[in-house]
């Protein structure tokens, strides 16, 4: 377990004063990804359009202590891959020296949907970079529109739940598996740091591991959005915990094609635990929508069983 | 206040802004106070605190001040009052009260 006292002495790379909502999960994720860097390492960060981008950098203020590039929705991965290639060329010519790490941050809209092709391209070209997707399950920045990461049945402004429709009618895209199919040296799926859980430092450990590996890396982090999930800010991490305990969001990593599940719940909780904790799924708990909950449970079970199989657990 | 390379105010004209919208002062968002967003306020009781740092771990606004591995208090200039920290404390050292 990492030593918190030592970690607290590391320099802060994302300052307060950003305009993310109170209780936003994204800065929690960024903080802990960047904590995995040694103090003498400089980060070069590109950020896809999204809450994190527009709220951490409102001219003339920035929360970032490292070099940070504001990019469009679709090209965070392309931008950082270019920066990495330029760095290599300059290093070869002796114009620059020192330790640098290249990181891209994107939300699920900028990663699952709009930025997918540039992400796929950068990963295929094999740049030495880490792409971190903070997946909060919708386009929260523009007012909660559904994305391909939005879970089945979620109420969003473009998949509203009403008398005719039960919210979003498609299952979420499994982006982590798409990245695994790129045969990268390292792909991981995780959650923010949640004190008191066996996987408290899963995010930190995976970031540290990712930074130690050369080549393209990808991390997918389920990130709470109190506004979009319709939850209380103070207890938001409890909700994320339920995503792990119900196996909606398994914690696993794939290193050079080898699967490893980092946490297997002793007793898998029913998916209703995860659903009933959030306002965006409230309508699913009505008796007439019981078949939808069952459908969601079956899909979660199917994906979990598949993962167990791939990891050689079953 | 820290020494800053930029001095952009409401009176600054567009001609005087930095080309390309570049921000020269890394981390200058510290100068922007978000503390007035708070509806609820975390209160820290030093005598009960065991300095386990679990509140500091979760703060999205880096508003829990730590020095030499010990909690020193809250940065109320930036704390937005989300209350995530108050739920982590096992020792009753953090209270969450309505802002006056």
From TrEMBL, chain A:
It comes from Caloramator fervidus. InterPro entries: PorB-like (IPR051479), THDP-binding (IPR029061), TPP_enzyme_TPP-bd (IPR011766). It holds the Pfam family TPP_enzyme_C. Keywords: Oxidoreductase, Pyruvate. GO terms for molecular function: oxidoreductase activity; thiamine pyrophosphate binding. Residues 49-220 form the Thiamine pyrophosphate enzyme TPP-binding domain. This is Pyruvate ferredoxin oxidoreductase beta subunit.
TrEMBL record, chain B:
It comes from the Bacteria. InterPro entries: 4Fe4S_Fe-S-bd, PorD_KorD. Keywords: 4Fe-4S, Iron, Iron-sulfur, Metal-binding, Pyruvate, Repeat. The keyword 4Fe-4S applies. Its cofactor is [4Fe-4S] cluster. Pfam families: Fer4_10. One of its GO terms (molecular function) is 4 iron, 4 sulfur cluster binding. Residues 40-68, 69-99 form the 4Fe-4S ferredoxin-type domain. This is Pyruvate ferredoxin oxidoreductase delta subunit. It comes from Caloramator fervidus.
